[in-house]
Design goal:
With 152 residues, this protein is of the alpha/beta class. The protein has four helices and five strands, in the order βββαβααβα. α1 packs parallel to α3. The longest helix has 21 residues.
């Protein structure tokens, strides 16, 4: 008999100072009494890349296959993974307009990261006072901080 997959709730966010510019990502992972907060960043990136990086890092941080409710305030992330990605894969990572998919390498990493989990993707309104979404935003800004200081 196999053990049931743990249920994990995740909140992710990405941030950028300028677009492109220094950026950061953050994620809050919760399962039962356990809570983990992670963040990181890059010196030159875009907000969309950081939204994707947050989701990838959160899924990669899970030690075993899980049932995941992933919440993001990025419609780009939610629509891309829920509606567009299968078409991109069929079209050789080209859009319906035959243009290369932006951030294709991150979409490919996200597609791989989600394969070992059962992920439900949820959109939440950003900066609307939701405690965990606000915390993910704080973590994203924390992840960006070292790259802002290096820019000065």
């Amino acid at each position: 008999m196999t053990a049931a997959k743990p249920q994990v709730t995740v909140y992710t966010d990405g941030a950028c100072s300028g677009n492109p510019g220094p950026g950061g990502w953050g994620a809050v992972l919760m399962s039962g009494p356990h809570r983990k907060e992670i963040c990181g960043g890059e010196p030159q990136t875009t907000n969309n890349r950081m939204e994707l990086a947050a989701a990838i890092a959160a899924l990669d941080a899970l030690k075993r296959p899980s049932r995941v409710d992933l919440h993001s305030d990025s419609e780009y992330l939610r629509n891309g993974i829920s509606m567009w990605i299968e078409g991109w894969k069929r079209n050789g990572w080209r859009t319906a307009a035959k243009q290369p998919v932006k951030n294709a390498e991150l979409w490919q990493r996200l597609d791989a990261a989600r394969q070992r989990h059962e992920v439900s993707w949820h959109w939440v309104r950003g900066h609307a006072g939701h405690t965990e979404n606000e915390r993910a935003d704080e973590l994203a800004r924390e992840g960006m901080r070292p790259f802002l200081q290096a820019r000065r």
